Amino acid sequence: MRCYLCERVFLPQPTWSQLFTTRYEAVICERCNEQFERIDGGKALFAYNATMKDYLHRYKFLKDVALAQVFRQDIHHALRHRQEIIVPVPLHKNRLQERTFSHVHELLEQADIMYTNMLMKCVDDRQSQKTLQQRQADTKRFDLLPHVPIVNKRIVIFDDIFTTGATIFSIQQLLYEHGASHVDYITLIQA
Ligand SMILES: [Zn+2]
């Protein structure tokens, strides 16, 4: 097996305990794996560090879609028993076209987590000349897709990275306004 990150050849050698809890074979070597900083018991699975920064760059901007597999075990483990509806944060359609795949959706796909598309992104952040603060103040950044049942639903928003919380909180507010009974969130990374 060649590590997806450093390209060294390695032998996936699960420990005895991992044999019973691990569903997927590792795609990165132990040395790379140790560079990521896991967070226990929070709403994010990993801290943002230099290794994660490099990973995100390769995954999102160099469009290396195979890297969605790196965290599939962690995401699978974190979400598989959630009873709520899992709702990924979408890209704006212009960004989707440019990136060719939705990095947030792909993380869920690779982790075999069922999700429901409920949202559309209305504002293409990169085309706007305004500052982030101005955009947050005067635009509706997300809207609901038509015909999605939401009243009294329990929802978990899933996103790749929690930075200021602006994205998550605006979606939370939107879902509550439309009748969701509970809106939680989980992200891969805490910036
Ligand atoms: Zn490696």
TrEMBL record:
CDD domains: PRTases_typeI. InterPro entries: ComF/GntX_DNA_util-trans, PRTase-like, PRTase_dom. It comes from the Bacteria. Gene3D superfamilies: 3.40.50.2020. Belongs to the ComF/GntX family. This is Phosphoribosyltransferase domain-containing protein. It comes from Caryophanon tenue. The lineage of its organism: Bacteria, Bacillati, Bacillota, Bacilli, Bacillales.
